[in-house]
User: Fold this.
Amino acid sequence: MRKILVTGGAGFIGSNFVHHLILNTDYLVTVLDKLTYAANPRSLESLPHNRVRLVVGDICDAAVVDPLVAETDIVVHFAAESHNDNSLHDPRPFLDTNIVGTYTLIEAARRYSTRFHHVSTDEVYGDLELGDPQRFTEDTPYNPSSPYSSTKAGSDLLVKAWIRSFGLQATISNCSNNYGPYQHVEKFIPRQITNILDGVRPKLYGSGANVRDWIHADDHSSAVLRIIERGRIGETYLIGADGEMSNRDVVSLILKALDQPKDAFDLVADRPGHDLRYAIDSSKLRAELEWVPAYGRFEEGLEAAVEWYRSNEDWWRPQKQATEAKYQEQGQ
Ligand code: NAD
Ligand code: TDX
Assistant:
């Protein structure tokens, strides 16, 4: 049976990807995860133990990484410090994990000639104007805004250099904003859903006009699976599902799904350097690899996510208080 190493598999997208692998493939999965504050091993607990193994360790630690990469057929690299707001207050862990961690993994993949897939973000391209018809493509120049996105951009460039200089057998994907089950309550959509469930009004940064391009995490997973199975080595693929929406409109939909008045939200301090708009043109992935997202309307996927948080309070409750205390300190 084929073996796959999934870094960051106890986090949001990584755990959704492991669920997707178990349902749709016969891979034997090893998850390598440091179990930072962002991880929740419970996200994996319903999966068969004979198919999924969790190794707790740091991707920056070559002594941990090397033997795992040596024994696997492929590495899919999700592990990262992933939250922009945290990166503005304490950038150092972002440099360590996103840059040094990626370096440690690609050195191991080079040593053992292991197929490598690097999971990245559309934020490496900076932002677009509101109302501009332009969207990001694989040819858009890198122009990251935050400590988070600059470290992700740095990690992409390392992978590109290792492909060119050392013949690393790698692909890269840059995806838009994900939503779905198992997302930490620090992120926008789960924060607002769980605030409302706690009787607290949703909090929009600035005017709430910023636009994000939403994709369900399971569609991200199917795209990554398609790229590792059919993608061309050395190529970058943008992943998106045409889900552009302003933050204010997202909050309106969440309020509606939870039977709240449509103006029951607060505007709070804006994020410094807040990117205005992201939008993905995923034509290359769709045309070359015949990928199509399974989730149709964002509204339906969002309603399902609202229902998931309503039904899984025991999953998110332990993180909620500390997360809100941190936001309160920041005036958000
Ligand atoms: P997350 O924060 O939910 O999960 C990250 C996981 O990585 C956690 O389980 C954490 O414990 C683990 N981790 C962190 N540092 C580690 C280290 N040094 N060693 C081992 N494990 C470590 O993040 P996410 O939202 O699931 O994002 C996963 C990946 O997808 C990231 O690379 C992110 O840049 C990318 N991405 C995310 C989005 C999004 O909308 N969330 C969109 C596009 C791309
Ligand atoms: O309480 C909030 N209020 C608010 O208005 C929070 C937490 C966020 N926001 C805004 C900021 C953004 O415009 O909502 C939008 C989404 O915010 P986040 O969930 O923090 O996501 P974002 O900064 O867009 O980055 C996400 O998508 C790209 C992921 O966190 C990244 O890991 C990914 O690379």
User: Anything to note?
Assistant: The first helix runs from residue 12 to 24.
